[in-house]
Design brief:
Layout: E1 5-10, E2 22-27, E3 35-44, H1 47-54, E4 72-80, E5 92-96, E6 108-112, E7 116-118, H2 125-143, E8 157-161, H3 167-178, E9 181-187, H4 192-197, E10 202-205, H5 209-213, E11 222-227, H6 234-237, E12 241-249, H7 254-265, E13 271-274, H8 281-292, E14 300-305, H9 309-318, E15 324-328
Parallel strand pairs: 8-9, 8-11, 9-10, 11-12, 12-13, 14-15
Antiparallel strand pairs: 1-2, 3-4, 3-6, 3-15, 4-5, 5-7
Helix pairs in contact: 2-3, 2-8
Bound molecules: NADP nicotinamide-adenine-dinucleotide phosphate (NAP).
Pfam family, one: ADH_N
GO molecular function, one term: oxidoreductase activity
Domain Enoyl reductase (ER): 16-327
């Protein structure tokens, strides 16, 4: 497809929010030897996308301008690089792109073979794209630091999921139930029935005084908190933790890192664990199978066409999505 142009959205500098995204025509990228070229069917947005644009993660993830953002895509393989062994043209796949290169807000993108997996026909492109960053983060938080066994054979533990109505939270509730946990969840009043429908055993409205204490209505102490909301300190959870309970913070800021260090040095039994998801193809395949088998569902907040992707971007910045925000060609 060398020389062909495609529609994409890109930004040229830090800041600017949705208005900073420009519609452009740029060349369709060519796959390197270990890459596949995808015609995008769906792209899922994450808060990381606009946080990178804002420069919030600049020391760790500096932008290379111009930047076509977004990392979670589903698409059809159009071409494969000379070294690609596991994919061929015409296959439907889902891929996780690097935050350093992005590329998801476009008609075509190249993806590393290593982070591309086949999409079964039972799982739609939007449902599959949504799984990547959010599903992987929920899975890694629950299996590694929280120690849940996803086949449900582990002992029952008590889990609190904050921001359970969001992209990560809605997967965390469902996966925690598969892992044999008792789940307490927090969300806004309008989402209480929704979060219960995902399997949460008890739900707290985060805007009420009871919700702000994180106290389990049935008096449970949490073995792990999958903390997906922003700006809540460890001390707010501490009284509700079991003796060796952990807060797994997926939105760690400088204060989190400081508390983490203090808890380590003082050998505290109650721990704070900052979590940075590392994408793994086998984890994505595992999640895709759970969706295929109907054990986990992707809930879609809204779908937006690529020509109006700035609306999707603004919605993500707004921070009130229920489930995932999707952009389609
Ligand atoms: N460390 C990692 O590797 C990693 C990976 C993925 C995501 N993250 C981070 O994790 C955070 C969550 O991501 P996400 O994709 O789930 O976000 P999201 O989908 O944008 O979350 C939006 C949802 O959170 C709810 N919410 C906001 N504040 C809340 C609070 N204090 N208590 C309860 N619910 C609250 C909102 O409910 P209302 O509308 O009712 O307010 C909304 O439904 C983001 O900061 C993201 O950057 C980190």
């Amino acid at each position: 497809m060398a020389g062909k142009l495609m529609h994409a959205l890109q930004y040229d500098s830090y800041g600017g929010g949705a208005a900073g995204l420009k519609h452009v025509q740029v060349p369709v990228p060519s796959p390197k030897s270990n890459e596949v070229l995808l015609k995008i069917e769906a792209t899922s947005l994450n808060p990381a996308d606009w946080k990178i644009q804002k420069g919030m993660i600049r020391p760790f993830l500096p932008c290379k301008f111009p930047c076509i953002p977004a990392t979670d895509v589903a698409g059809e393989v159009m071409e494969v690089g000379s070294g690609v062994k596991n994919f061929k043209a015409g296959e439907k796949v889902v891929a996780v792109l690097s935050h350093l290169t992005g590329g998801g807000l476009a008609e075509f993108v190249v993806a590393s073979e290593k982070l591309t997996v086949k999409r079964p026909q039972e799982v739609g492109p939007a449902e599959a794209a949504a799984l990547s960053l959010s599903g992987l983060t929920a899975l890694q938080a629950l299996t590694s630091p929280a120690g849940l066994k996803m086949d449900g054979t582990g002992k029952q533990v008590n889990i609190l999921v904050t921001a359970a109505s969001g992209g990560v939270g809605h997967y965390a509730v469902q996966l925690a139930k598969l892992g044999n946990a008792h789940v307490t969840a927090t969300c806004g009043a309008r989402n209480i029935e929704f979060v219960k429908s995902l399997g949460a055993d008890e739900v707290l409205d985060y805007k009420t005084p009871e919700g702000a204490t994180f106290k389990s209505p049935s008096g449970k102490k949490y073995d792990a908190v999958i903390h997906c909301a922003n700006g809540i300190p460890f001390s707010a959870f501490e009284p509700n933790l079991s003796d060796d309970g952990k807060v797994i913070d997926i939105t760690p800021g400088p204060k989190t890192m400081w508390t983490y260090a203090v808890k380590k040095v003082t050998m505290s039994k109650k721990q704070l664990v900052p979590l940075f998801m590392i994408p793994k193809a086998e984890n994505l395949e595992f999640l895709m199978n759970l969706v295929k088998e109907g054990k986990v569902k992707t809930v879609i907040d809204s779908k937006h066409p690529l020509r109006k992707a700035e609306d999707a971007w603004a919605k993500s910045i707004d921070g009130h999505a229920t489930g995932k925000i999707i952009v389609e060609p």
